[in-house]
Amino acid sequence: MIGEQTLKSRTDTGIALLEMRGISKSFPGVHALSDVSIRLRKGEVHVIVGENGAGKSTLIKILSGVYRADGGEILIDGQKVSIDNPQRALKLGVSVIYQELNLNPHMSIYENIFLGRESTVAFGVLRRGRTIDEARALLDKVGIEVSPRVLVKNLGIAQKQMVEIAKAISLNARIFVFDEPTSTLSHAETSRLFSLIRDLKASGCGIIYISHRLEEIFEIGDRCTVLRDGRFVGTRAITQMSIPELISLMVGREIDQAAQRTERFATERVVLRVEGLCYQDVLKDISFDLRQGEILGLSGLVGSGRTELAKCLIGDLRKTSGRILLDDRPVNLSRVTQALSNGIAYVSEDRKKEGLFFLHPVSTNMTIASLRRLVKNGFLRPRLEKNLCLQTGERLRIKTPGLKTQVKNLSGGNQQKVVIAKWLLTKARIFIFDEPTRGIDVGAKAEIHRIIIELLKGGASVIMISSEIPEILALSDRILVLRLGRTQALLENRGLTQEDVLGFAMGAHALGPN
Amino acid sequence: MFARVLQKYAIYFGFLAIFAVFSVLSPHFLQGQNLSNILVQASVMAIIAIGQTMVIITGGIDLSVGSIVACTSLVSAVLIVDSGMPVPVGLLIALLISLLMGFVNGFISHYGRVPPFITTLGIMSIARGAALALKGGRPVGNVPDAYEGLATTTLFGRIPIFILYIVIAYAIAYFFLMYTRHGRYIYAIGGNRDAARLSGIPVKLYGTLAYVIAGGLAGIGGILLTARLDYASPITGYGYELDAIASSVIGGTSLSGGEGNILGTLLGAVMIVTLKNGLTLLDVSAYYQQITIGVVVIMAVFLDSIKSLRAE
Ligand SMILES: Nc1ncnc2c1ncn2[C@@H]1O[C@H](COP(=O)(O)OP(=O)(O)OP(=O)(O)O)[C@@H](O)[C@H]1O
Ligand SMILES: [Mg+2]
């Protein structure tokens, strides 16, 4: 490995590895990109930022041959190229790790890595042993310790992403594109990804990096291109910018970024009590209570059992032992339907797999969990539904060409907002948010935080799972830290620092529930 | 622009084209008697296809409907003709049996986690076998007038009652799918099963419901068919499941689930029957009719896939 110092020094030689000039692209009802240009140098990390729906992913999809631009040209090493399909992009050395991961869940890791390029002895007979060895070497390189034979569906999101990167490396890519890679990663995984990116950079590859996490842009980026509403705003060296400057370039206005909570709404009334909850060998003896009007932050590394805990609370996973009490009344929730009718809503962390109906319109996605409200005399009221969706869409600033647009055509952040809208409409009294601001831009994030706090004012209670410790610190009344399925600490959120929480999550120090 | 419109309404244009071609080629095609024949033939298929469409929207498939048609048909005739049961009672029992078979399809597929292709393939064989066993493979003829009346009644003395059946069945199905909570759930299950479950939808229950509906509608189809033919044969309804699937698919229902519209299915069913009718009038043998229908199904899906490719 190469030392930190040499990596920071400019490997920039001025040759554009990749140039996209004057790119335009429209979809029915939207100008996703108009006249956008970007130059990627060898050995640089070029960050693209912009609000949800600014056109970042669309630009990438044009580069990777998923979409065809309506206008503009692409040059690689100064040569004009035409990229009409993803295979072509791969041949030209462009590898994209997408926001929505694209692995086949029913195949093993090594099959995914070498999909379409299986090495064969003869007559299509696979050289399994060798392929597996190669896959293992690649997995070592990206630093995950699982067997290449494991099925992808059994991997966590972070591991899946590493598999995607391993695949890109095996394709000898020279231009790596990461579309919000860290939105699903833990702290440690993020550092590992960054060191991987630094290695790629040192070997002369060019990296395009999209993220809504501004701090990390400053950590990993060299230059930065800002898009706003599909237009090119500017490209700057990261060292010549500050976070507030970047934000105002992105949104064209000032934003109050950190929604530090000043008011507290927590009452003494316990709405949910969990006693000695166990789930298989994943969760061990978890106990806590949730008060009305409070936000309980749930922190812990990926794999600490946070999501499993949430799913036990809504009856989607069946707890092995322990008790759950709502308003001091023991309940036995064995189905999500029951949880919902008891007023518990769970906003899943995986919007593609567990949150959205990709092919269905925005409106039906929003109302599917609260249809009972829209029924009069047995029939749904379309007018009522439309108004409700318009209101909620406005409240969350969902950017969509219309309510009948298929959700798959929305930008990632706007899809996330649709999921949140779905649960807000249920009028639950206990909300469990699992990574609610994943992939959401700074402005919208503040907005969602505001909405969560509004829920408290309306008498609801919130359990908030997030890998972003600053977010947990900014919002929670108390913080429950899980580690390896056990309660590591239950902390009052007064004067806590990021290091404190991380320390508990990693098991540096332990503390009984206070 | 023109190409886009053509693609969007491909099925309507296809339908008009078929109509135009047959009108020109055969002088009998446009006659009132023939059109009402088409309608009567199409109605049974159209009613069965409603259930098939719903099942496909939930992400399933029902291969057993043709056999359920035969089984219901025979059971009703045996009860009414052979055992002399009153017509309404016999029909009710036959209908209940068809619902039960639908329920078994759904229950095994959803609660027993057997792929619906396998479950319904099994029921297809069982129901057909039962229909054959009931009278040792022989048909039952001469159903009472009260039974026959279901098919022979006319509106205003000339319009076949079948048109009323179609209108009622499709109106109910349309409102059920588009304007009730339950309809939304059916789409949601096929659109994304996990998301549906986590949205609090009883996935297995609604998944099973779709098969029950499909079984019941196949039963109604069997009864109407018996009324029209005036006898029940254990070999009726052969291949109906495929025609029903074809009707749904031509009408724009996606076999991967979550997408589809019931009025498209009606058009699909009428189109298939029109094709068969027109080809018969032109003296094309049944063998070539099958080939033609195969081509049409593939064309319809092909056009549809170009449409979605274009959207990218
Ligand atoms: N296939 C499509 N059909 C129609 N509209 C689309 C399609 N893909 C993207 N859009 C629209 O283009 C715009 C840009 O979307 P894009 O996904 O590029 O945004 P983004 O900058 O990546 O946002 P995010 O940060 O939320 O991921 C959005 O308004 C989106 O609705
Ligand atoms: Mg995006």
Features:
heterodimer, A: 514 residues, alpha/beta, Rossmann fold, 3 domains, six-stranded mixed β-sheet, 18 helices, 22 strands, 33% helix, globular, disordered N terminus, B: 312 residues, mainly alpha, two-stranded antiparallel sheet, two-stranded antiparallel ribbon, 14 helices, binds adenosine-5'-triphosphate, binds magnesium ion
Most extensive interface: A-B, 33 and 22 residues
Tell me the fraction of residues in β-strands of chain B, as a range. Answer: under 5%
- Summed up, the helix count of chain B is 14
According to CATH, the fold-level topology of the largest domain in chain A is Rossmann fold
Q: Which regions of chain A contain 5 or more consecutive residues with pLDDT less than 50? A: 1-13
Q: Which structural class do the helices and strands of chain A define? A: alpha/beta
CA radius of gyration of chain A: 24 Å
Q: How many domains make up the coordinates of chain A?
A: 3
CATH architecture call of the largest domain in chain A:
3-Layer(aba) Sandwich
For the record, give the distance between the C-alpha atoms at the N and C termini of chain B, rounded to a whole number. 16 Å
Average the pLDDT over all residues of chain B and give the rounded result: 91
Compute the separation of the termini of chain A in Å.
44 Å
Structural class of chain B: mainly alpha
Chain-averaged pLDDT of chain A: 87
Shape of chain B: globular
In quaternary terms, these chains amount to: heterodimer
Summarize the structure in words.
The complex is a heterodimer of chains A (514) and B (312). Chain A is an alpha/beta fold and 514 residues long. Chain A folds into 3 domains: 168 residues, P-loop containing nucleotide triphosphate hydrolases (Rossmann fold), CATH 3.40.50.300; 64 residues, no CATH class; 129 residues, Rossmann fold, CATH 3.40.50.300. In chain A, 33% of the residues lie in helices and 25% in strands. Chain A has a 6-stranded mixed beta sheet, with helices on both faces. Chain A has a 6-stranded mixed beta sheet with strand order 16-19-20-13-21-22, sandwiched between helices. In chain A, strands 2-1-4-5 form a 4-stranded antiparallel beta sheet, with helices on one face. The longest helix of chain A is centred in the middle third of the chain and has 16 residues. The N terminus of chain A is likely disordered. Chain B is globular. The two termini of chain B are 16 Å apart. In chain B, a hairpin with a 3-residue loop joins strand 2 and strand 3. In chain B, helix 3 crosses helix 9 and helix 12 packs across helix 13. Chain B is mostly helical. Helix content of chain B is 76%, strand content 3%. Chain B has 14 helices and 4 strands. At the A-B interface, helix 11, helix 12 and strand 18 of A face helix 9 and helix 10 of B. The site of adenosine-5'-triphosphate (ATP) has 20 residues of chain A, from strand 2, helix 2 and helix 15.
